[in-house]
Automatic annotation (TrEMBL):
A Pfam family: Hemerythrin
Name of the protein this chain belongs to: Hemerythrin-like domain-containing protein
Source organism per UniProt: Saccharomonospora azurea NA-128
InterPro entries: Dimeric_xanthone_biosynth, Hemerythrin-like
Annotated ranges, domain Hemerythrin-like: 18-148
Amino acid sequence: MGEYSEAAERLTSFGTQLLEVHIWLREMLEDLQDHIDDYVAGKGLPPRDLRAHCLSFCTALSRHHTGEDKNAFPVIAERFPELRTVLSDLRTDHNQLDWLLNRLQNLLDGLPAEPDPSTAATVREEVEALSAIMQTHFLYEEKKLFSVLNSMDVPEWRENRPSFLEIDDD
């Protein structure tokens, strides 16, 4: 019975871990959106704290995507060559999301201490664009890679969790 449980855990772990990371990143973005809405409403975090929150989210999302590009996608492409087009599409999304993250960081770097309607509208639009693309990207990735990841046994991923499967504890 112990061997079966260990095998079942191994077979579900990577896809399940990917879903957990995506849930965590979605929650981080929702928190950032809430903090931005509070700032726009004239309450909540000052711009300095918004920038710090954004930096945490942006770093986590970038680390996740860089880890996929460098660690996960090459292994998947080798074992499942029929997914190379999917992986290429996902890399394209990563580049687009990186561009949007940079734009958002630049906007937050220029936030005035007191919100003004023009800046608030621009920041909200940027966050909404980022959220829409990130959500679509995650859904596509989950649909295409969940079962593939669950079918894989990559001992080095079990021994040392790769960055694309990491969740910060704080």
